[in-house]
């Protein structure tokens, strides 16, 4: 599906200019790096008298889909369930997660559980259960949207004294959408004002009818303070898990979902994962979205170094070259070369796609401005990691100009892309930010989106220059 203008041109023996001209004649502005849409492909096919079949360009690097072949049903063993707890704020999600953990971890190991962590495994009646702490139901669904449906069972926590609240309703929707079995934990049953029947009635109104009322949802009264009902809750989870018949192949290449990741001082990128198939071992070559690496260290949920993580187990992994996004899927590869190649290809596609989007937007805006005679220049802000590359880029960009249009460097500096750069960019019409070996932080990225500021990042100077050239030629054709 994803083919860029110049790739298409190459494939049918035309020049990118011919392709661009055809589309331009029909009012479709594209540059040679843009991805062609389905309708554009059809038009081009007709125009050039060739048959266009649409196939996925990412096909060869879709390592997650390919992974299915790794799994062998004859190796299947039962794996522990993975449970997510969600609920209205202050209804006791965190307290419950902490209580379950502290009451189920042997006292000798209690030292490792002082800090709150995003996932852990406990044992109940000799069987394992893994709990994941998702930052919220939005994050839960976002992860599922990315293909990381790690959760097998959802627990909705409702405070017995407070009942159903707005976020409880949202959680119900998200939980239902996930298709996972749901257990309702009615928390704070130690309180005098606790009212289980009220909660049941409110939930029943929202199609969450309790089993003892003729429905199919288990309601378990618990107290994160006293520990009351927790065994009951855990037994219920095991029961649900049994019905689900959760299976996985421990002999397959490892596949694990990232539930949290960050950059830690002195340690580099650290990812908290849950193993879904295979076993994650020290030394494994892994790809995770656009990041890759070799597993240098594994720390289990008690903070202890371990050599491996088994099915549904959780821990943190060191060794990726960059921080992956939560919800990314980590997959083992045969060699470090393979891992690097896949990650690099994916990164390249993601970058090109992003670029194609952003260039288009700013170009469209700009052609309007040009038509009005407002601008004849492309304002840019350049940020780089070191002074040397800054000078090189600035010099090259200032050289690419002609009679109609030229690059105007609004600001050039060494360092990350900051909010102050955004303010600056917003202040000069059509200004784009070019980052070389620097990336905007998540919050800057979001703000840029909100402000409509385009940020393009590069790791190859040639690519940067080339894109700017393309943007300028786009501006020129708009003038003509
Ligand atoms: P979260 O926002 O859902 O994570 O809620 P917290 O775990 O932070 O709990 C919110 C408040 O409720 C805290 O003050 C807890 O001490 C209190 N709380 C949580 N569970 C219980 C419980 O079982 N009984 C009582 N009495 N208070 C609880």
Automatic annotation (TrEMBL):
Q: What is this protein called?
A: Translation initiation factor IF-2
Q: Name one GO cellular component term.
A: cytosol
Q: Where does GTP bind?
A: 87-94, 133-137, 187-190
Keyword annotations = Cytoplasm, GTP-binding, Initiation factor, Nucleotide-binding, Protein biosynthesis
Tell me a Gene Ontology molecular-function term this record carries: GTP binding
Query: To which species is this protein native?
Result: Halarcobacter ebronensis
- Record carries keyword GTP-binding: yes
Stretches the record annotates as G-domain: 81-229
Which function does this protein serve? One of the essential components for the initiation of protein synthesis. Protects formylmethionyl-tRNA from spontaneous hydrolysis and promotes its binding to the 30S ribosomal subunits. Also involved in the hydrolysis of GTP during the formation of the 70S ribosomal complex.
Taxonomic lineage = Bacteria, Pseudomonadati, Campylobacterota, Epsilonproteobacteria, Campylobacterales
Oxidoreductase found in the keyword field: no
What protein family does this chain belong to? Belongs to the TRAFAC class translation factor GTPase superfamily. Classic translation factor GTPase family. IF-2 subfamily.
* Domain called Tr-type G: residue spans: 78-245
Q: Where is the signal peptide?
A: none
Q: Tell me where it resides.
A: Cytoplasm
């Amino acid at each position: 599906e994803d083919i860029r203008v110049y790739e298409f041109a190459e494939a049918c023996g035309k020049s990118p200019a011919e392709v661009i001209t055809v589309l331009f004649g029909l009012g479709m502005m594209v540059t040679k790096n843009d991805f062609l849409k389905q309708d554009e492909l059809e038009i081009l096919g007709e125009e050039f008298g060739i048959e266009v079949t649409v196939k996925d360009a990412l096909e060869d690097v879709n390592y997650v889909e390919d992974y299915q072949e790794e799994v062998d049903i004859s190796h299947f063993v039962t794996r522990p369930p993975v449970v997510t707890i969600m609920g209205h704020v202050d209804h006791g999600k965190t307290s419950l997660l902490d209580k379950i953990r502290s009451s189920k971890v042997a006292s000798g190991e209690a030292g490792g559980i002082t800090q709150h962590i995003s996932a852990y495994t406990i044992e109940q009646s000799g069987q394992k259960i893994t709990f994941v702490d998702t930052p919220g139901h939005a994050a839960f669904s976002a992860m599922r949207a990315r293909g990381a449906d790690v959760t097998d069972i959802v627990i909705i926590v409702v405070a017995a004294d407070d009942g159903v609240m707005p976020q409880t309703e949202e959680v119900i929707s998200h939980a239902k959408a996930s298709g996972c079995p749901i257990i309702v934990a009615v928390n704070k049953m130690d309180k005098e004002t606790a009212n289980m029947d009220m909660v049941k009635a409110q939930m029943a109104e929202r199609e969450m009818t309790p089993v003892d009322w003729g429905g199919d949802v288990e309601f378990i009264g618990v107290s994160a303070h006293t520990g009351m009902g927790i065994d009951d809750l855990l037994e219920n989870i095991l029961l649900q898990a049994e019905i689900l018949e959760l299976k996985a192949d421990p002999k397959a290449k490892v596949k694990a979902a990232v539930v949290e990741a960050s950059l830690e001082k002195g340690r580099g990128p650290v990812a908290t994962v849950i193993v879904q198939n295979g076993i994650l071992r020290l030394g494994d070559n892994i790809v995770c979205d656009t990041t890759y690496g070799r597993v240098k260290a594994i720390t289990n949920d008690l903070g202890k170094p371990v050599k491996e993580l088994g099915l549904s187990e959780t821990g943190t992994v060191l060794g990726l070259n960059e921080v992956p996004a939560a919800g990314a899927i980590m997959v083992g590869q045969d060699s470090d070369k393979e891992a690097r190649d896949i990650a690099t290809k994916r990164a390249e596609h993601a970058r090109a796609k992003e670029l194609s989007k952003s260039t288009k937007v700013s170009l469209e805006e700009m052609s309007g401005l040009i038509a009005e005679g407002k601008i004849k220049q492309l304002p840019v802000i350049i940020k780089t990691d070191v002074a040397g590359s800054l000078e090189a880029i600035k010099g090259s960009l200032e050289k690419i100009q002609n009679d109609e249009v030229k690059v105007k460097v609004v600001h050039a500096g060494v360092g990350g892309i900051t909010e102050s750069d955004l303010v600056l960019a917003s202040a000069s019409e059509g200004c784009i930010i070019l980052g070389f070996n620097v990336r905007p932080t998540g919050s800057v990225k979001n703000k840029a989106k909100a402000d409509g500021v385009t940020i393009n990042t590069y790791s190859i100077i040639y690519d940067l220059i080339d894109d700017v050239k393309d943007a300028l030629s786009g501006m020129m054709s708009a003038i003509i």
